[in-house]
Design a protein that fits this description.
Number of helices: 2
CATH topology: YaeB-like fold
Order of helices and strands: EHHEEEE
CATH class: Alpha Beta
CATH superfamily: RelE-like
Strand order of the largest sheet: 1-5-4-3-2
Largest sheet: 5 strands, mixed
Length: 87
């Protein structure tokens, strides 16, 4: 049986997702749904130089997040276009 994770968004991530175009927001929402049951899906990468930050690609956008396995929570830090994601 797989464990479900609770997803939280920072206030800046909430603002970023609200400002996305509808088709992109829909794809990001689908990616977030996958994270609930699999916080490290195929294609995700651990960010270098960060303690516990991960990223998953959604087209030209990146979802940057942290995972707390003990509490079964995922904190979404940012949802940005790839040119802005790592600044």
């Amino acid at each position: 049986m797989s464990r479900e994770y609770e997803i939280g968004l920072t206030s800046s991530a909430r603002k970023e997702i609200r400002n996305l175009e509808k088709p992109i927001a829909s794809r990001v929402g689908a990616a977030l749904d996958v994270l609930i049951t699999d916080p490290r899906p195929p294609g995700c990468r651990k960010l270098e130089g960060e303690d516990d930050s991960w990223r998953v690609r959604v087209g030209d956008y990146r979802i940057i997040y942290t995972i707390d396995d003990r509490a079964a929570t995922i904190q979404i830090i940012a949802i940005r276009h790839r040119r802005d994601a790592y600044r």
